[in-house]
Specification:
Residues 1-145 form the Pectinesterase inhibitor domain. By secondary structure, this protein is mainly alpha-helical. The protein has helices at residues 2-22, 27-49, 57-80, 90-114, 122-146. Helix 3 packs antiparallel against helix 4.
Length: 152
């Protein structure tokens, strides 16, 4: 399963990089494009979660952690926009983005971990997991693109 996930991430990243490169965009724009796509995918995940049983603690926890993930990603988009501006510390901004995107991945992992408890509803877990994994793949692809940015 992990190999398929990694492979899928590289497919997404290659598509983003191909589209960005062929349209003349630089590495920063490629990272912004991937990051923006991950925000959209993660917001879609939240919308899906909100259609599920609101009384279920695991669903509530997932909504909370995935919302935190969107917050980290949105903050990252704004921070990445500062890269390259005059008098801005490039390394600081890129490292902030890496930290926040990594935190977004952790949030999504926390959601999935919460679905595996001893009293977990297997049917509910099986409906949520693909949406969260899809979002996590987009975020991982964005992080891979961000890791290609220069810090000097």
């Amino acid at each position: 399963m992990a190999a398929k996930l990694v492979g899928f991430c590289f497919v997404i990243l290659n598509v983003v990089l191909h589209v960005s490169t062929s349209s003349g965009q630089g590495e920063q724009q490629q990272a912004l494009t991937a990051l923006s796509a991950s925000v959209t995918k993660t917001q879609s995940c939240i919308a899906f979660l909100k259609t599920l049983s609101p009384a279920n603690k695991a669903v509530q926890d997932c909504i909370e952690t995935i919302t935190s993930s969107v917050d980290h990603l949105t903050k990252s988009v704004k921070e990445l926009g500062l890269v390259g501006k005059p008098n801005e510390d490039l390394a600081l901004h890129v490292n902030n983005v890496k930290t926040w995107v990594s935190a977004a991945i952790t949030d999504q992992t926390d959601c999935l971990d919460g679905l595996d408890g001893p009293n977990a509803d297997a049917k509910l877990r099986d409906s949520i997991r693909p949406k969260v994994v899809e979002s996590s793949q987009a975020v991982s692809s964005a992080l891979a693109s961000i890791n290609r940015l220069p810090t000097k």
